[in-house]
């Protein structure tokens, strides 16, 4: 894994978006214009919700601004500390068919509106996720040998320093959307 990187993040349900936006602005984090992201998530054959995601490869096909991106993530320490590879693809439907041919199974479609900001080596994403709510993700890309949980502690400390009421979640968007759409 030498030379590889991992994306490490923390995620929070936002209770008051306006207060969060004001706090981020005071910190110097100016959010971008909103962009719509339409994601199809995929899982390895044999994996099912309720099983551990650690060490399992997951794929995503995203359309944003008329462009398509294929991503593979493999959770390391937990679901929010992942090895990640991403590339742009020309044809979403053909890539979908290729992912299916590789044996991956479609799981959940996630549609969200995202605004981003960069601050002190962090990327801050404010996401309005259809069926799940408004969330803020704070992430950093670090060497794969770094402790993802230690980085998450640093990111959590930053989130707490904002002075905004946030509810931390360790669920990924696919799990949150699935739970919202699954009858009790």
TrEMBL record:
Domain of life: Bacteria
Domain CYTH: 5-179
Residues in the signal sequence: none
Matching InterPro entries: Adenylyl_cyclase_CyaB, CYTH-like_dom_sf, CYTH_domain
PANTHER family recorded: CYTH DOMAIN-CONTAINING PROTEIN (PTHR21028:SF2), SI:CH211-156B7.4 (PTHR21028)
Name of the protein: Adenylate cyclase
UniProt source species: Spongiactinospora rosea
């Amino acid at each position: 894994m030498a030379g590889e990187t991992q994306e490490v993040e923390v995620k929070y349900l936002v209770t008051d978006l306006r207060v969060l936006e004001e706090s981020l602005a005071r910190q110097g984090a100016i959010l971008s214009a909103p962009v719509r992201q339409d994601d199809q998530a995929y899982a390895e054959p044999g994996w099912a919700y309720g099983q551990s995601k650690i060490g399992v490869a997951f794929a995503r096909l995203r359309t944003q601004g008329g462009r398509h991106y294929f991503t593979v993530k493999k959770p390391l320490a937990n679901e929010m500390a992942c090895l990640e590879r991403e590339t742009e693809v020309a044809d979403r439907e053909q890539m979908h068919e290729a992912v299916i041919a590789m044996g991956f199974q479609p799981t959940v479609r996630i549609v969200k509106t995202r605004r981003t900001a960069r601050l002190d080596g962090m990327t801050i994403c404010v996401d309005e996720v259809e069926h799940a709510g408004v969330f803020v993700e704070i992430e950093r890309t670090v060497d794969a040998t770094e402790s993802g949980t230690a980085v998450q502690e640093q990111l959590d400390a930053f989130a707490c320093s904002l002075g905004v009421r946030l509810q931390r979640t360790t669920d990924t968007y696919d799990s949150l959307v699935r739970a919202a759409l699954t009858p009790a």
